[in-house]
Specification:
This protein is mainly alpha-helical. Helix content is 87%, strand content 0%. The termini are far apart.
């Protein structure tokens, strides 16, 4: 049973890490899978608990990547807007 709980703990840690990375908007699939893992563990369906826990961990990692990607896209858009403003200013000063 302890080994089975380790899978859940690992998933919980992955979700917490993703939250610290600002991935809250992308974490719903991981949280659902974790809930199913906990339910399966309570029902002593250890195989399903392990599979759901692994899914939750992978979904949490994906959420992290999605959050980072979103942040980078936002930064690129911000820099692009700054460049456009600079070009306008340079064009007006000539």
């Amino acid at each position: 049973m302890l080994v089975k709980q380790v899978f859940i703990l690992s998933s919980e840690q992955a979700i917490e890490q993703a939250q610290t990375m600002g991935a809250d908007d992308f974490l719903q699939p991981a949280q659902i899978a974790l809930q199913k893992a906990q339910e399966a563990l309570a029902a002593e369906d250890y195989r399903a608990a392990r599979l759901y826990a692994e899914r939750a961990e992978l979904d949490a990692r994906l959420a992290e990547v999605q959050a980072l990607s979103s942040m980078k896209r936002n930064k690129v858009a911000e820099i692009t807007a700054q460049i456009q403003r600079l070009r306008l200013q340079l064009g007006e000063s000539q």
